[in-house]
Amino acid sequence: MSRRALAAAGAIGLAAVAWSTKASQPGTAGQHQVAVAPVAARESGETPRVPRRRLERVRPVVLLGGTLLDGTGAEPLRDAVVVVEGGLIQFAGSRDQIVIPPRAVVLDVTGSTILPGFINAHVHCRYQVDRLRAWAQAGVTTVRDLGGPRTYDLVARQNGDPQLARVVAAGPFITVPGGYPIVPWGSTNAVTVRTPDEARSAVAQLAGEGAGVIKIALECGQDFGRVIPSLDAAEAAAVVSEAHARGLGVSVHLTVSVDVPRAVAAGVDDIAHMPVTTLSLEMASQVAAHGIVWVPTLELWHWVGYGHKPAAISNLARFLAAGGEVAMGTDFGGYDAEFELGMPMIEIDAMRQAGMSPAAIIQAATRNGARVCGLGDRLGTVEAGKTADLLVVRGDPLADLEALTDVRLVMHSGVVIRDEGPPAATAGRT
Ligand SMILES: [Zn+2]
Predict the structure, then answer these.
(1) Cβ atoms of 356 and 364 closer than 8 Å
(2) Which of 118, 168, 250, 390 can bridge 411 by disulfide, Cβ–Cβ 3.0-4.6 Å?
(3) Which residues contact 82 (CB under 8 A, 6 or more apart)?
(4) Residue 411 pairs with which residues in a beta bridge?
(5) What's this model's pTM, rounded to 2 decimal places?
């Protein structure tokens, strides 16, 4: 047994013993199942009485034959096998390391690429079901809502439905009276504080109600042509320490580079927009050195105009040169424009223009997105033990990122929510 298989066996415990490995059982049923009819879904064993769409709730599901891009930064693994059971990834690796579990639902994804479910780490979705369904269908299985009403109960209920993208919700901003987003937007999605103690209480309140992340604003107003008050250093630091004590990350809104040092000093976890004024390499290096993740929202700047998009792309290039980590996020719904729902190709194309490779973009949209959602231990990579959120696309997104829109299959929390079947040419063969 290889080291990789041993590691997987350790992670899946008894199930690994039951399935054994192909190496120890040459010519087993696993080999036979691989060879049979190339239809979208086959069941090994007798026909079950539960409908096909619910099979994955009671049987292991095996994705067989695709190229695995697991989101860890590892090289692509061809002819891979991913085994899912009980909503979790039980095995992800090479076909010769595992025997297909008996009674598994086997989905042939040859010619496709298996990726972690994508994460849009900056949206404002108002928890609308049609939006959440559209994201999930596109393989964006998680979104992080960085500012909205405090309807955490609704979010919790919706998160029980795998047909909908999972939402990690900040709820209202924590800001000061007259601060952003009350000014300039008149937003009511804000809790105002006047002292560090009030800042701590606000975090405790939102955390208790169900916030998955805390959002603050350090917006001086420069890009809005006015002065906007914001949390002082002690208040911002109080928010961060209280959030961290409660296991929550802090994301900060800012739009100009002059506000970046305040975000670094406060110790935030991520910055929710790339600034539109020049970011010095020194400042970019500071952010990178503190391990603060940047969520560029280049699609926002695309819609806003005023040359903000090329400015933000240049700043992102500088941050990358400084070794910084990026998570993909668009600010969907954060500005009056028709943001892309589903796979955000405008954002992805702009990230590419900043010099990010397809592999880096995929990592930003998966592993790093999970990190800023505070779900790095459960989501973002295809590894044994993680929640089975998977996007399978036809072709090779490393060669052409457009492949991300050619969806073959989506699995959310272990449930297949979209299955387009194999390509027609393969399905027609006998
Ligand atoms: Zn926003």
Answers:
(1) yes
(2) 390
(3) 62, 63, 68, 89, 91, 92, 114, 382, 390
(4) 390, 416
(5) 0.87
The Å distance, Cα 331 to ligand 1 centre, comes to 5
Q: Is the dihedral of CA 125, 143, 235, 229 positive or negative?
A: negative
Tens digit of pLDDT for each residue in 82-133? 999 999 999 999 998 988 888 899 999 999 999 999 999 999 998 999 999 9
| Cα 202 to ligand 1 centroid, rounded to whole Å | 20
Residue 398 Cα distances to 29, 114, 164, angstroms: 33, 12, 27
Backbone angles phi, psi at 74, to 5 degrees: -70, 155
Fill in the DSSP letter of residue 54: G
Q: How far is the CA of 143 from the centre of ligand 1 (A)?
A: 12
Distance 391 CA to ligand 1 centre (A): 25
Q: How far is the CA of 101 from the centre of ligand 1 (A)?
A: 44
Give the three-state DSSP class for 70. Answer: coil
3-state secondary structure of 377: coil
- pLDDT value of position 58: 74
Model confidence pLDDT, tens digit, residues 160-193: 999 999 999 999 999 999 999 999 999 999 999 9
Domains present along the chain, CATH in parentheses = 3-116+385-427 (2.30.40.10), 118-372 (3.20.20.140)
Strands (E), 197-302: 214-217, 250-253, 270-271, 293-294
Task: Give, as one character, the DSSP assignment of residue 133.
Answer: H
Query: Which one-letter DSSP state was computed for residue 74?
Result: P
Tell me: pLDDT of 2 over 90.
no
Please give the Cα distance from 93 to 62 (Å, whole number).
Answer: 12
Compute the distance from residue 123 Cα to the ligand 1 centre, in Å.
6
DSSP state of 413: T
The overall longest dimension of the chain from CA atoms, in Å, is: 73
Query: Is residue 239 within 8 Å of 199, Cβ to Cβ?
Result: yes
User: CA 378, 380, 89, 44 torsion: positive or negative?
Assistant: positive
Compute the distance from residue 330 Cα to the ligand 1 centre, in Å.
8
Q: What is the CA radius of gyration of the chain?
A: 23
Closest among 79, 104, 108 to 92, alpha carbons compared: 79
